[in-house]
């Protein structure tokens, strides 16, 4: 019966280690958009530049809206 308590303690320790490793990886950005960089080479540069320009315009619109609200 005492072996059961030891195994539960060890499993909690291992689970805590995995939780800490996961949180560390998330904090370091390991899970940030891993798909786009792998397929970026497949897109034309012009299309990529157009997307970049659209995103820039969208950010400017959001910034303008925020500035007008305050």
Characterise this structure.
- It is a single chain.
- The chain has about 70 residues and is an all-alpha fold.
- The protein has two domains: about 1-30; about 35-70.
- About 80% of the residues lie in helices and about 0% in strands.
- The protein is built from three helices and no strands.
- The radius of gyration is 23 Å and the shape is elongated.
- The protein starts with a helix and ends with a helix.
- The model has no long low-confidence stretch (mean pLDDT about 85).
Q: Which tags fit this structure?
A:
79% helix, elongated
Strand content: under 5%
Order of helices and strands: HHH
Termini separation: 65 Å
Helix content: over 70%
Query: How many helix segments?
Result: 3
Biggest β-sheet strands, sense, barrel: none
| Class from secondary-structure proportions | mainly alpha
Number of strands: 0
Shape: elongated
Would you identify the regions where 5 or more consecutive residues have pLDDT less than 50? none
Total domains:
2
Give the rounded overall mean pLDDT. 84
Radius of gyration: 23 Å
Short characterization:
This protein has 70 residues and is mostly helical. Helix content is 79%, strand content 0%.
